[in-house]
Specification:
26% of the residues lie in helices and 15% in strands. The strands form two sheets. Strands 2-9-6-1-5-3-4 form a seven-stranded mixed sheet. Helix 6 runs parallel beside helix 7. It has one domain: Alkaline Phosphatase, subunit A (3-Layer(aba) Sandwich), CATH 3.40.720. The chain is built from seven helices and nine strands. With 305 residues, it is of the alpha/beta class. The protein binds zinc ion. Zinc ion (ZN) binds next to loops.
Length: 305
Amino acid sequence: MVFGLFGSKRELNHFILITLDSCRYDSFMAAQPRTIPKLVGGLDRVEKRYSYASWTAPSHYNLLTGLMPHSSPANVYASEYYKEDFLRYRDRLGVKDVEFKSMVPQLWLPKYLKGKGFETNAMVSLPVLNPATGVNKDFDTFKLMPKHNDMLAMLDEMEAHMKSRPSKGLKGDTPQFYLLNVGETHYPYALPDEPRGLWPQISGVNGVFKKLDEQVKDGELVSDNESGEFFDQDKLDQLRARQINTVKYLDEKVFPRLYDMVPKGTWITVTADHGELFGEMGYFGHGPILHDKCLEVPFLEGLVR
Ligand SMILES: [Zn+2]
């Protein structure tokens, strides 16, 4: 039992699942983050894992079936790996027993968590995950953020959530699940205060919608390659450096606040939905790409304190 602020008698952990959109494993490591890896005791304990999918929508669907990016083990049946992976929810949720049969037939984590008494929340940055899509099932709250690259705004929302419903927010008795899909690490790898338009809009890369920060009602399916010329390697190198810079920013300016604001008994998982290509074999971005770097993602998780 966790006695948090305000005399909470919460029995289970809060569980916050964070996807750094498009953040490939080696970009995360090159940023040498110091705060984020505190969950596992240091950067050298961050795992390289593999996403089940190469782009945002299927990857998040899979995460919401409860399956984290995998470690690609040899000589193991997939079904055995799934069962073992699922048992990690004992630690994540702070329960003695988790039963895979409770996931059947929906195979849907939010539904399972609601059965355990959780309130389920999602804040997403990418319009392909907007609240009208199929991934918004069994969520109590689900929001497409107004800006595609502002994780601090998500923390503001979490704090507002706490204040408006003190019995239900992070400081209350009801365990909370949050999915946070973070967009700073997505093309064009811009910090929230960067002026728009410094880099071309790329519809295919930007997740089907013409403009990332347009409201869904204005979303428009467009063809790829409106950007004209493909980036040369110099530009691609700059873009990779920009992605690394966004990880540094998140590590220095955003995660310290997150780790401070959550109460004891909060489990946080940090990973990415897929990787990104920066010129390897002529590829840029993610999606219709078959390349290891499109699947390599960082993975780390643990109790904040
Ligand atoms: Zn994505």
